[in-house]
Amino acid sequence: MNISGISANDGFFTGSQIGGSNELSSDDFLELLVAQLGNQDPLEPLNNENFMAQMTDFSSLDQLEELNTNIVTMIALNQSNAALSQLTQGSALIGKEVRWSDPSTGLTSSGSVESVKVQNGTALLNIDGQDVPLGYVNEILDAGTESESDSGTDSDSESN
After folding, report:
1. Which end of the chain has a smaller Cβ tally under 10 Å, C or N?
2. Angle of helix 48-91 relative to helix 26-38, nearest 10 degrees?
3. Can you name the CATH fold of 64-142?
4. What is the pLDDT of residue 155?
5. Pick from 131, 112, 128: which is nearest to 120 by CA?
6. CA–CA gap between residue 98 and residue 116 (Å, rounded)
7. pLDDT digit string (tens) for 12-22?
8. Which H or E element spans position 98?
């Protein structure tokens, strides 16, 4: 038995989600609620408990959407603060002699920090014309004399 008006292929179907996702937005929910109220049997109207339950669901959905928006905004702000923090840390090294290690090759080099920039969320120090991520720096050299690394490792054996 075929019942018209209930499938996406039927001419009577007016759903806004044809070919899209199966999620309902708050606007869709409100449209359904208004349609339900408009098409209810006047002799047996929707009882208050069901109506309040649907309104509570609608309110919860609205609050969850607002919470999601706030979380996304907070994540973006946190990423921006992290980039600013890296930029501040890197700018404190401008004009200083630093030693850095490339983790992919294990080679250690040193040079003078000329500038700093943030690219793709990572602070890059320009050391003698070469872009080096801030995280690669493992030692700040003091006026041409070597100092101990903050990590407690001595990198003298790594350099040559």
Report:
1. N
2. 170
3. SH3 type barrels. (2.30.30)
4. 46
5. 131
6. 13
7. 444 444 445 56
8. strand 97-101
What is the residue whose two structure tokens read 């969850």? Answer: 64
Q: Within 13 Å, how many C-alpha atoms sit on residue 53's CB side?
A: 5
Closest of 97, 131, 90, 94 to residue 112, by C-alpha: 97
| Spatial distance between the Cα atoms of 110 and 159, rounded to a whole number of angstroms | 9
Identity of the residue numbered 133: P
Give the chain's radius of gyration (CA, Å).
31
pTM over 0.70: no
Round to whole Å and give the CA distance between 160 and 62: 63
Q: Where are the domains of the chain?
A: 64-142
Closest C-alpha among 131, 61, 116 to residue 85 = 116
Which residue ranges of the chain lie beneath pLDDT 50? 1-8, 10-19, 144-160
Query: What CA–CA distance (Å, rounded) separates 146 from 160?
Result: 14
Residue 99: phi and psi, rounded to 5, are: -115, 135
Q: 């980039």: which residue's tokens?
A: 83
State the pairing for strand pair 108-119/97-101: antiparallel
Give 113: exposed, middle or buried? Use CB within 10 Å, 0-12, 13-18, 19+. Answer: buried
